[in-house]
Amino acid sequence: MPNAILVLNAGSSSLKFSLFADPPGGPELRLRGQIEGLNGAPHFIARDTAGAILDERRWADGTNLGHDGAAHHLVEFLQGFRDEYQLMAVGHRVVHGGQAFSQPVRVDAEVLAKLEKFVPLAPLHQPHNLAPIRAVAERAPQLPQVACFDTAFHRRQPELAQLFALPSAITERGVRRYGFHGLSYEYIASVLPQLAPEAAAGRVVVAHLGNGASLCAMAAGRSMASTMGFTAVDGLPMGTRCGNIDPGVILYLMDELKMDARAIERLIYKESGLLGVSGISSDMRELLASDAPRAALAVDLFVYRIGRELGSLAAALGGLDALVFTGGIGEHAAVIRARVCRDAAWLGVELDEAANEAGGPRISTASSTVSAWTLATDEELMIARHTRQTISPP
Ligand SMILES: Nc1ncnc2c1ncn2[C@@H]1O[C@H](COP(=O)(O)OP(=O)(O)O)[C@@H](O)[C@H]1O
Ligand SMILES: CC(=O)OP(=O)(O)O
Ligand SMILES: [Mg+2]
C-alpha cells in the first residue's frame, strides 16, 4: 500500500483537502476537493488528478453545515480510501503562528497549547484549524501531524513593515503586523519564475482574493509588506470582514453603542465586508449576478480598496513589475480582475481583455510595462511539501 499525506486547509468559508502519494521526487497529488459555501450553500466536490468528479453533494441553501459538519462529511468520504493508502502524516494549514512559529512544526501537546493562544487573533480560522488536529491526535496519537502557518512567509519582512506605531512595551508583547495567506503567496513565488523570470526577480504584488482577501508585496520572491496585520480582519474588505477601519470606530462602538468585545468581533469578522455593505451576500458570485444597487456598491468598494492598497504596496516596493491575481475571486472573476487592472493603468498595467476573459495566465498586453497574471494557487501542495520535509528532514 503506498504511503500518503493528507492535507487539510480550513479557510473562512471552505474546507479544502488533498491526498498526496509520497514518491521520492516529492508529494504527488492523488485526489483533492473542497466543501465550500460553509455558511450558506454548502457544496462538496472531490476530483481525481485528471479532474474527473469522484463524489459530489449539495446541501440546501441556508444550511449552516459549519466546519465541524464539513470535517465529518470529509472523514466519511475518506473512509472509502482506507484500503488504498497508508497514511503517513497529516499536514494542516494553521492561520496564525504568532512570533513563536516562523516555519512549519510537528504538532505535540505543547505546540497545540501555544497555538490555542492565537484563537482570539483568528476567530474565523484558528479554531477550525486546530479542531481536526485534536481529533486526529485522539484517534491516532502516533500519526505525525504538521502545522504550516499563513504567517510564516511574512516573518522575514523588513522590521518597518511589521511595526505598528505603538509604544514598544505593546510591540514586545507581539502586537505587530503578521500578514496571512502566506502559503498561497509562497506557492505563487515558487511558480512565477517559470512564467515571468524577470518580473519574479523584481517587484510583484500578489492579490489573494477569496472569502478572505489580502495583497502581498514581494521583492525577488520575499514578502516585503502585506495588507493584513495583527489579525486577518485588517486590510481589504472581504466576504464578511470589514478590512481596515479607523480604530476610533471601535471606541465609538464601545462608548456610544455600548458594544462589548464579542459584539464588535461579530460585527467586524462576520457581518461586514461584502455582506455588510450589500446586505445580500458575502459571495462575489451572487453580488455580480445581482442588479441591486447595494450589491454594486459592495463590489465597487472592494475594487476601490484594492486599487488604493495596490498603490500603497507599489510605493513600499518603489515601483511595480508584475501584478498577480489568485484565490477564489482572483482566479474566477474576470470582471474583478479587469476593473482592478483598468484602475491600475496609472502604474503601467495594460489589460488584454480577451486574454483576461480566457483565463490567462497572462492577462496583460505584450506592451504593458507591468505584466498581469492570473494563477491558481495551491496552498495544499505547499503544505504537503512542508509536511514531508518536517517529518523527515533531508
Ligand atoms: N466564478 C466566480 N466568480 C466570482 N467569484 C467567485 C467565483 N468562484 C468563487 N468565487 C468567490 O471565491 C470565494 C471563495 O474563495 P476561496 O479562496 O476558495 O475562499 P476561502 O477564503 O474560504 O479559502 C467565494 O466566496 C466566491 O465569492
Ligand atoms: C487568512 C484568511 O483570510 O484566509 P481565508 O481567505 O482562507 O479565509
Ligand atoms: Mg483560502
UniProtKB/TrEMBL annotation:
<keyword id="KW-0418">Kinase</keyword>
<feature type="binding site">
    <location>
        <begin position="208"/>
        <end position="212"/>
    </location>
    <ligand>
        <name>ATP</name>
    </ligand>
</feature>
<feature type="binding site">
    <location>
        <begin position="328"/>
        <end position="332"/>
    </location>
    <ligand>
        <name>ATP</name>
    </ligand>
</feature>
<comment type="function">
    <text>Catalyzes the formation of acetyl phosphate from acetate and ATP. Can also catalyze the reverse reaction.</text>
</comment>
<dbReference type="GO" id="GO:0006083">
    <property type="term" value="P:acetate metabolic process"/>
</dbReference>
<keyword id="KW-0963">Cytoplasm</keyword>
<dbReference type="GO" id="GO:0008776">
    <property type="term" value="F:acetate kinase activity"/>
</dbReference>
<feature type="binding site">
    <location>
        <position position="9"/>
    </location>
    <ligand>
        <name>Mg(2+)</name>
    </ligand>
</feature>
<keyword id="KW-0808">Transferase</keyword>
<comment type="subunit">
    <text>Homodimer.</text>
</comment>
<feature type="site" description="Transition state stabilizer">
    <location>
        <position position="241"/>
    </location>
</feature>
<feature type="binding site">
    <location>
        <position position="93"/>
    </location>
    <ligand>
        <name>substrate</name>
    </ligand>
</feature>
<dbReference type="InterPro" id="IPR000890">
    <property type="entry name" value="Aliphatic_acid_kin_short-chain"/>
</dbReference>
<feature type="binding site">
    <location>
        <position position="379"/>
    </location>
    <ligand>
        <name>Mg(2+)</name>
    </ligand>
</feature>
<dbReference type="InterPro" id="IPR023865">
    <property type="entry name" value="Aliphatic_acid_kinase_CS"/>
</dbReference>
<feature type="site" description="Transition state stabilizer">
    <location>
        <position position="181"/>
    </location>
</feature>
<dbReference type="InterPro" id="IPR004372">
    <property type="entry name" value="Ac/propionate_kinase"/>
</dbReference>
<comment type="similarity">
    <text>Belongs to the acetokinase family.</text>
</comment>
<feature type="binding site">
    <location>
        <position position="16"/>
    </location>
    <ligand>
        <name>ATP</name>
    </ligand>
</feature>
<feature type="binding site">
    <location>
        <begin position="283"/>
        <end position="285"/>
    </location>
    <ligand>
        <name>ATP</name>
    </ligand>
</feature>
<dbReference type="GO" id="GO:0000287">
    <property type="term" value="F:magnesium ion binding"/>
</dbReference>
<protein>
    <recommendedName>
        <fullName>Acetate kinase</fullName>
        <ecNumber>2.7.2.1</ecNumber>
    </recommendedName>
</protein>
<keyword id="KW-0479">Metal-binding</keyword>
<feature type="active site" description="Proton donor/acceptor">
    <location>
        <position position="150"/>
    </location>
</feature>
<dbReference type="GO" id="GO:0005829">
    <property type="term" value="C:cytosol"/>
</dbReference>
<comment type="pathway">
    <text>Metabolic intermediate biosynthesis; acetyl-CoA biosynthesis; acetyl-CoA from acetate: step 1/2.</text>
</comment>
<dbReference type="Pfam" id="PF00871">
    <property type="entry name" value="Acetate_kinase"/>
</dbReference>
<keyword id="KW-0460">Magnesium</keyword>
<keyword id="KW-0067">ATP-binding</keyword>
<dbReference type="GO" id="GO:0006085">
    <property type="term" value="P:acetyl-CoA biosynthetic process"/>
</dbReference>
<keyword id="KW-0547">Nucleotide-binding</keyword>
<dbReference type="GO" id="GO:0005524">
    <property type="term" value="F:ATP binding"/>
</dbReference>
<dbReference type="InterPro" id="IPR043129">
    <property type="entry name" value="ATPase_NBD"/>
</dbReference>
